[in-house]
Design brief:
The structure is a homodimer.
Chain A (H helix, E strand, L loop, with lengths): L1 E4 L2 H22 L7 E2 L14 H8 L14 H17 L3 H17 L8 H5 L9 H4 L1 H23 L23 H17 L16 H12 L2 H13 L6 H8 L33 H18 L2 H17 L31 H17 L3 H17 L15 E2 L1 H6 L13 E2 L4 H10 L6 E4 L2 E4 L5 E7 L2 E9 L6 E8 L5 E6 L7 E8 L5 E5 L5 E5 L2 E6 L2 E9 L4 E5 L9 E6 L2 E6 H4 L6 E4 L5 E5 L6 E12 L2 H4 L18 E3 L3 E2 L5 E11 L11 E2 L2 E4 L1
Parallel strand pairs in A: 2-4, 6-10, 19-26
Antiparallel strand pairs in A: 1-7, 3-25, 5-6, 7-8, 8-9, 9-15, 10-14, 11-12, 11-15, 13-14, 16-17, 17-18, 17-26, 18-24, 18-25, 19-21, 20-21, 21-24, 22-23
Helix pairs in contact in A: 1-3, 1-17, 2-4, 3-4, 3-7, 3-17, 7-8, 7-9, 9-10, 10-12, 12-13, 12-14, 14-15
Chain lengths: ~700, ~700
């Protein structure tokens, strides 16, 4: 499948990534820009003076002198940047950028050791301790990110280099599947050499290390390398790493004790086993535990292996963990990770709105996981969750200027609380320039730059339409190609047309997702000839297969078939399961896939005093000027006001001088009272899409608003 | 004033302290008991293997060999234990206990260095670093606790030793005020020698250290030593330490950098200046900031100095900080400290019920502060807050068995959240045997053992009745004594009689507090002759001065005057200021001074599903069998139940297979829905006093319950 996006909403983001974020991050990685790097939470050990990421490679490559600076996983910033750059190069040939990226690949190659080992921290700082503290070392995590970047770069540059690559110089073995074209061969050579070094070092065989990385990621990289090269060893190794989790729970701590005992990342020795998903053998895990990004990366790779092998037992584990996340541990914004401590999942229905983590990377990982689940089985809910995470938490991770980023994505923010309550110090009120742990911004860049890969899926011979992004996809079958185009102005409009041009000899089934949020959907099917001219209109049933698992399938015969759909985009009220104690008595407003929120700049301070009556109209209007163009939802609501009588404390009001029989209204200052302050004033409550919040300076924000009966 | 308590409610606690807690803690301090010491929060650095506190003294005294173990302030556990023991000895002569306490005093004396310096950690571990890292060292903090203990022990043992002390061997100077009898003279000798060593080491004079301790406490000890000995140097030094706060904000960090740079308490170098109350000169502080215990200890000493000197400027600072706490930063239970991070205050109206700290010690310190404020000015609200903190958070710090203790006193607990959400790991679900930082249990012991000191106050010639604890107090005037007795069965009953027997030549004014919580109060005054026989009954006005500042005063002439009062103890609903977002839509039930709570053991799981209708009767009944005898409040309430239709996730219910026009009830699994689950079932909601919670195994608890209109 090859997909090209040409969508109003997404082109803006893709251009932001290409023209602003990639050049911006390049300067950050080179310490060539004057910015304030913030710590993502209150932790003195977070390195935040500079990035130093490119300099680390120069030192490891022998081109420069000095010490490594930054996290042990600082290399991955460069890799994710390279991967994002690769995706943009795919659609926008850019010689200047490619000159830089080719040089980066060369630099990485020079930093790689002869053995194939690649990690600047250990090469520079602790060359005798490679693979000896895997719980914290992130060596394989970084390797995974490099491999992902190399595969992307290889594929991206293939199109306009076209030359024969150097596969024969690698040990990648027989090429069974995947792309035959070869682009920048050096990136792939480095990746293969690195993967082979890892394969030679880890595994069940005697003499190899029987362990895996503390942070899942290498498995994703190995699967991508397998898909590109067809080399089954890489998939086997990915599966080994996955199944090794929980087999030897003391592995990380034992390695640590037997090695230096010195922590490169403070506190990791003492974290619970769940943090690493090693509390139980992977096959026995059925809840989402520990560090949220790690968990979804693990599941992404596991689902990929399950889909690639058809292994039903692995698929069953994926389904169990998916169910647990989606039914019990996910925010309405598609955020995951209920606590900053360990950036982790906690327990079922525990979804605090103001102390949570909801890391941008975790929602990105959830999107990766959903995409792989769609490869296992075509269920609309996977795409529902993908869409929810994409249009809400993932996009909220970046400011509209493409140069400021959130790590943590709260559902409720009061700026003074973030400043003065250390329990909420990780909840930033505006997006920082850059972050001490800079995992999120480049992760988001690579997602946006490759968003085309999430729109369509293959399900056997079927084609699935998951997202309504204006685009054209071509799939080649043995007997011809099928082109599917989506015409949409989504999520601004609910009107969508899916055009299928079938040049194969038979019919092709196309499943169009009916979003879980959709209230009313109208549709019609138009069948045309191969010029696209409509020759028949069918109201539906005779040409439509039954809806299955959230998709409506159409059998598209030769020529052109157009499915016209209209989703009702009227704003809707959403309620949480009563077991979510934090959302009791509250309502969340959404329009289509977008969750809305109220900001202080539109609604004044103390948003918790606002209530939306349960029967208030939710009026929606497009505002072209606001926040780059957004829908705004307004409702006639009320604001609780404090009665004058209660406003002063009892000392100020002299209420402690009571006469006999007189009752003080405030038993204790103005803080606790015997009577409720039951006054309300009418107010217009104004809401904007969640992804666009915090683009107008520091102010309050709330997703869940009180509902008044 | 000398007061003897003989009260049903308090005798039980005092006996628990005397017969269980003091012997129990003695064994803990000697590591002579098999208990589980828990960390008060998830922090690997907390020493929790043993107490070692007595052993530390033996090592410092040269009687034993080894290293110091435990916190740098481990000594204070012994001092607070000694102080509590002293108070019990006052009322219960106990030769066996006094043999032990005398030996402890000797041991402490032997551990004191010749210079007067006393601190086992620095004597054993870092003898060259005394007073060089005051931000973390707790040297003066420990000294303050020893001085408090020594004063208490001196006073307690005076009564039945009677002998002449050794004041002449000390440098205490002129004895101007206070007790002339001398008890165990060695305790006081050690204290004076220690205080003089501190006085010689600190102060504005050249050559002295211009600084103070990171944790306020020495100031309280010095003021007590001043009250006992009349030596003004001690008060002057206390005032110096107080006013030094914020004068040189870099002092602690500079000392640290110039000394070893090695932290004995991890992380203290990086805490904000507010933590130590050094963010601004003390005279300019007007909000309660930083570590809650430190803040209230600071205010206790400041109010003591203000009351003892009549310094209005100091009193004004006390009043400002008091107002800020009581009007904006105090829980309805009298708990303070809204966050575990830094065990600190946060900001106005920020009172989360499930992540707060509310340390037992902080409420005890608030009681100390209130008592000193009553010395500055007779305002009922000081006693209101004292009572609120005493009957709720302070008492909740100890289990009914006197052997298990809370450090953190939440207003909302879900056991699974404490177990699985690290953000709530400090919120224990049952009281541990003992705590790694064992400040709270002995602090509570000394408070309970000396509760008589809080019942009455002197306000010039007036006598104030602050608390309704059955007791007798004798105050000596130049021309005779006045005896005030309280007859009460409080808080079980609202009936109270205050009997004043005036043997002086004139009238004495007695102010009886009218509690801020009281709805209706009925009263009558009976005047008797000196046999106590009633000769006249006045319905009030002619004998009662006007109510002033929360007290009703009576002019008690010669002979006996009895004021009979009855407070309406009908359960009441309390509401929080609307600015407290966490309590929106919620109600708290109280009876008299006692806040009530609902526990899972009485009400089932998921207490957040319960609502009390705003018009439901609150029925109260005494249950002699339950929890050592408590009032139980019951109300006909409702429990939200989840409609069957919503219970299963959408995958389980197969809802993703939708037909055209059919709307999914659950857009996303069972977690988020388009319709509210609006089903309720009637339930009897049962509440018990807050202080008695968590005495029936692990279960949920809530103070603030939802209110249904």
């Amino acid at each position: 499948m090859k997909t090209v996006v040409n969508d109003t909403f997404w082109n803006r983001y893709k251009e932001l990534v290409r023209t602003r974020m990639i050049p911006y991050q390049w300067r950050v990685l080179n310490d060539d820009i004057d910015i304030k790097i913030e710590k993502e939470r209150n932790d003195a050990s977070i390195p935040s003076e500079k990035s130093h990421a490119i300099e680390n490679f120069k030192i490891a490559a022998g081109r420069s002198k000095g010490e490594h600076y930054g996290w042990v996983f600082q290399d991955s910033d460069v890799y994710k940047w390279l991967e994002a750059a690769a995706y943009t190069l795919k659609n926008h040939p850019d010689k200047e950028l490619m000159k830089i990226t080719d040089e980066v690949v060369d630099l990485i190659g020079d930093a790689q050791e002869k053995s194939g080992y690649l990690n600047t921290y250990f090469t520079i700082m602790e060359p005798d301790h490679k693979y000896k503290r895997l719980g914290e070392s992130h060596e394989l995590y970084c390797a995974g990110h490099f491999i992902e970047a190399a595969v992307a770069y290889h594929e991206a540059t293939a199109a306009y280099r076209g030359g024969v690559g150097h596969m024969e110089t690698t040990t990648a073995g027989d090429v069974e599947t995947g792309h035959k074209e070869v682009g920048n061969s050096r990136a792939l050579e480095i990746a293969v050499k690195l993967a082979d070094h890892i394969d030679a070092s880890f595994g069940p065989e005697e003499g190899k290390i029987h362990g895996m990385d503390g942070h899942e990621e290498i498995e994703i990289g190995l699967m991508k390398l397998y898909h590109l090269t067809g080399e089954k060893r890489y998939m086997k190794l990915a599966e080994y790493f996955l199944l090794q989790r929980g087999q030897d729970p003391d592995f990380f701590r034992r390695q640590f004790r037997e090695d230096t005992g010195k922590e490169a990342i403070g506190g990791l020795y003492h974290v619970p086993l769940t943090y690493f998903q090693i509390h139980a053998p992977l096959m026995e895990q059925d809840t989402a535990e520990g560090h949220a990004v790690r968990l979804v990366y693990m599941c992404t790779a596991l689902a990929d292996v399950a889909a690639s092998t058809g292994n039903e037992e692995l698929a069953a584990v994926c389904r169990r963990i998916w169910r647990n996340i989606v039914d019990k541990r996910m925010y309405i914004t598609g955020g995951i990770g209920s606590t900053v401590n360990g950036e982790s999942f906690t327990l079922d229905y525990d979804l605090p709105n103001d102390t949570m983590y909801c890391e941008t990377c975790a929602s990105i990982g959830l999107i990766f996981f959903a995409r792989q689940m769609l490869r296992i089985e075509p269920k609309g809910e996977y795409a529902d969750v993908m869409e929810r995470a994409l249009y809400n938490t993932a996009l909220a991770g970046m400011a509209l200027d493409g140069r400021h980023f959130f790590y943590v994505n709260p559902l409720e923010v009061v700026p003074e609380k973030s400043k003065k309550d250390p329990t909420k110090s990780h909840v930033k009120i505006v997006r920082p320039d850059w972050l001490g742990c800079a995992c999120c911004p480049p992760n988001l860049a690579r997602l946006i730059a490759s968003v085309e890969d999430y729109i369509y899926s293959e399900a056997g011979r079927d084609i699935l339409v998951n997202l309504f992004i204006k685009s054209t996809m071509v799939r080649e079958y043995e007997d011809g190609e099928v082109t599917v185009s989506i015409d949409a102005d989504y999520p601004k409009s609910g009107k969508t047309a899916v055009r299928i041009e079938n040049k194969t000899s038979g019919a092709v089934r196309v499943g169009v997702r009916i979003p879980g949020w959709a209230k009313k959907v109208s549709r019609k099917v138009v069948v045309g000839d191969d010029t696209g001219k409509a020759i028949q209109t069918a109201a539906g049933k005779e040409r439509l297969a039954a809806a299955e698992d959230g998709f409506w399938y159409v059998e598209a015969g030769a020529g052109v078939t157009v499915i016209e759909l209209e989703f009702d985009m009227t704003p809707q009220r959403w309620y949480a399961n009563p077991l979510v104690s934090e959302d009791t008595g509250k309502v969340s407003i959404a329009r289509g896939p977008q969750v809305f929120c109220a900001e202080g700049v539109d609604n004044g301070e103390n948003l918790h005093l606002l209530s939306i009556p349960s029967d208030a109209d939710l009026e929606c209007s497009w505002n072209e000027e606001l926040l780059g163009g957004v829908n705004v939802i307004e409702a006639e609501g009320v604001r609780e006001i404090d009665d004058e009588a209660f406003k002063t404390s009892y000392a100020e009001a002299g209420r402690e001088t009571r006469k006999e029989g007189e009752e003080a209204a405030c038993g204790q200052g103005g803080l606790y009272r015997k009577k409720k302050a039951e006054s309300w004033e009418p107010v217009k409550i104004r809401m904007i899409p969640y992804y666009a919040w915090a683009n107008r300076g520091p102010n309050e924000m709330r997703v869940w608003l009180r509902e008044k009966e």
